[in-house]
Amino acid sequence: MAQRCVCVLALAAMLLLVFATVSRSMGLRSDEHQRASRIPSEFSKEERVAMKEALKGAIQIPTVTFSYEKANTTALVEFGKYIYKVFPTVLSTSFIQHEVVEEYSHLFTIQGSDPSLQPYLLMAHFDVVPAPEEGWEVPPFSGLERDGAIYGRGTLDDKNSVMALLQALELLLIRKYIPRRSFFISLGHDEESSGTGAQRVSALLQSRGVQLAFVVDEGGFILDDVIPDFKKPIALIGVSEKGSMNLLLQVNMSSGHSSAPPKETSIGILAAAVSRLEQTQMPIIFGSGTLVTVLRQLADEFPFPVDKILSNPWLFEPLITRFMERNPLTNAIIRTTKALTIFEAGIKVNVIPSVAKATVNFRIHSGQTVQEVLELTKNIVADNRVQFHVMTAFDPLPISPYDDKALGYQLLRQTIQSVFPEVNITIPGTCLANTDSRFFTNLTTGIYRFNPYYLQPEDLKSFHGVNEKISVQGYENQVKFIFELIQNADTDQEPVSHLHKP
Ligand SMILES: *[C@@H]1O[C@H](CO)[C@@H](O)[C@H](O)[C@H]1NC(C)=O
Ligand SMILES: *[C@@H]1O[C@H](CO)[C@@H](O)[C@H](O)[C@H]1NC(C)=O
Ligand SMILES: *[C@@H]1O[C@H](CO)[C@@H](O)[C@H](O)[C@H]1NC(C)=O
Ligand SMILES: *[C@@H]1O[C@H](CO)[C@@H](O)[C@H](O)[C@H]1NC(C)=O
């Protein structure tokens, strides 16, 4: 996931027992015909060894994105050759078309037998952030296996998904599987920087007139042991992402010698401006997004009095928000956040600089737009000597449907239940960071971010940090999940509710 803080940070919500919906009753009608021809997700010992060795090989190719302009393109090319080698069936099947997009990204088009079913898209990325060796228990590009886990940069973000997608498809094809519903697999090469690969794939599909039933990308996880005293595992599916803005604040004053200084300098003016900005919180946004619905639905899971508080969110709004404001992570769920990230001014001890600059990084709540946040910021700064330059910005992503009729969401839930029967709670969340899937809003309203992997609290630090690893069992389950999901997606029926909620 891009930009260091990962989607899973949305789990912070759960640390404080909020932001969840319990939805164990809904599901998809089972299809008798489909059951009969279903291929069980059982893999031989040889297949299981081959699948983990394939992942190790992928980790060993250092597909590093160093900066916005710089990547190891040799490794990106090598990765393309590698997938040809390890997934020969995928690459040689007549109803699968493979294209290289934007030089290094990959798009697979899997033609289903029933053109009346709307296609869907599974996506992942194989570029990784740099991994300096210090602090690692094993070299970060070794792919070494230790105590039942494979170590290395990209084992969770996000080569595991890249490999699991192709691996599951390879195994299905070997078993002579022919999908009914068409689908696409898009593998991006620069998610950690600009995402041009995914943008190009999106443009290409749009130019072909494709409309997608849904998209699944990285983002959410299965979370265990995160809420104190709450022992049940929870599957978190990201249904939205916060927006983002990098804003440059600049003050120009005349420069001069420090022996006869003016009353105010560019540094002083800008420092006061950013200080006002830091001390003024953006407004709380309680009603929009998934929060309120989710609090009500989660209420039953808790004893008195938490259940009463959660089931009456409007009544207890002040209490709930005060609680959430205290923790930076839950605070990020109820409002737009801002962080002062760069401050530049001055070059010499006895010269008053003419220019001072500061960069502020905003993460925009789904209840606001870039424009609104910019206006609010100008009002808070309230000094016309400060100039504002928007460097990059995009609005929050729309909230994808997660009701009984939302095909993508319900297919994920159904697959979670069959692969992880112990997981009875699925919740929709908002990613605090961004993924490549944000480029696909023109193609579908259903964009879901979910990795079928049990994330331990310690794993959080390993994203873009040291000792990133995936358990061998966890990776097998991920392959199994995709194997099941592809088959589940062949349903031609609308999702239905088995049990009506009050
Ligand atoms: C780039 O990747 C290649 C392998 O494809 C590797 O041999 C080389 O050391 C990498 N370069 C850097 C700077 O990491
Ligand atoms: C402020 O100073 C910078 C750097 O010298 C310059 O590029 C910019 O045009 C100036 N802006 C104004 C409004 O004077
Ligand atoms: C989850 O659901 C399954 C099947 O309905 C049930 O057997 C199991 O006890 C449930 N587990 C929990 C923790 O509620
Ligand atoms: C979505 O479609 C509009 C209208 O065709 C186009 O201007 C825009 O660039 C598209 N956005 C993306 C992200 O592809």
UniProtKB/TrEMBL annotation:
<keyword id="KW-0732">Signal</keyword>
<keyword id="KW-0645">Protease</keyword>
<comment type="pathway">
    <text>Amino-acid metabolism.</text>
</comment>
<dbReference type="InterPro" id="IPR011650">
    <property type="entry name" value="Peptidase_M20_dimer"/>
</dbReference>
<keyword id="KW-0378">Hydrolase</keyword>
<feature type="signal peptide">
    <location>
        <begin position="1"/>
        <end position="20"/>
    </location>
</feature>
<comment type="similarity">
    <text>Belongs to the peptidase M20A family.</text>
</comment>
<dbReference type="InterPro" id="IPR036264">
    <property type="entry name" value="Bact_exopeptidase_dim_dom"/>
</dbReference>
<feature type="domain" description="Peptidase M20 dimerisation">
    <location>
        <begin position="240"/>
        <end position="383"/>
    </location>
</feature>
<comment type="pathway">
    <text>Lipid metabolism; fatty acid metabolism.</text>
</comment>
<dbReference type="GO" id="GO:0006520">
    <property type="term" value="P:amino acid metabolic process"/>
</dbReference>
<dbReference type="GO" id="GO:1990845">
    <property type="term" value="P:adaptive thermogenesis"/>
</dbReference>
<dbReference type="Pfam" id="PF01546">
    <property type="entry name" value="Peptidase_M20"/>
</dbReference>
<dbReference type="InterPro" id="IPR047177">
    <property type="entry name" value="Pept_M20A"/>
</dbReference>
<dbReference type="Pfam" id="PF07687">
    <property type="entry name" value="M20_dimer"/>
</dbReference>
<dbReference type="GO" id="GO:0043604">
    <property type="term" value="P:amide biosynthetic process"/>
</dbReference>
<dbReference type="GO" id="GO:0043605">
    <property type="term" value="P:amide catabolic process"/>
</dbReference>
<dbReference type="GO" id="GO:0046872">
    <property type="term" value="F:metal ion binding"/>
</dbReference>
<comment type="function">
    <text>Secreted enzyme that regulates the endogenous N-fatty acyl amino acid (NAAs) tissue and circulating levels by functioning as a bidirectional NAA synthase/hydrolase. It condenses free fatty acids and free amino acids to generate NAAs and bidirectionally catalyzes the reverse hydrolysis reaction. Some of these NAAs stimulate oxidative metabolism via mitochondrial uncoupling, increasing energy expenditure in a UPC1-independent manner. Thereby, this secreted protein may indirectly regulate whole body energy expenditure.</text>
</comment>
<protein>
    <recommendedName>
        <fullName>N-fatty-acyl-amino acid synthase/hydrolase PM20D1</fullName>
        <ecNumber>3.5.1.114</ecNumber>
        <ecNumber>3.5.1.14</ecNumber>
    </recommendedName>
</protein>
<dbReference type="GO" id="GO:0097009">
    <property type="term" value="P:energy homeostasis"/>
</dbReference>
<keyword id="KW-0862">Zinc</keyword>
<dbReference type="GO" id="GO:0005615">
    <property type="term" value="C:extracellular space"/>
</dbReference>
<keyword id="KW-0479">Metal-binding</keyword>
<dbReference type="GO" id="GO:0006508">
    <property type="term" value="P:proteolysis"/>
</dbReference>
<dbReference type="GO" id="GO:0004046">
    <property type="term" value="F:aminoacylase activity"/>
</dbReference>
<dbReference type="GO" id="GO:0008233">
    <property type="term" value="F:peptidase activity"/>
</dbReference>
<dbReference type="GO" id="GO:0006629">
    <property type="term" value="P:lipid metabolic process"/>
</dbReference>
<dbReference type="InterPro" id="IPR002933">
    <property type="entry name" value="Peptidase_M20"/>
</dbReference>
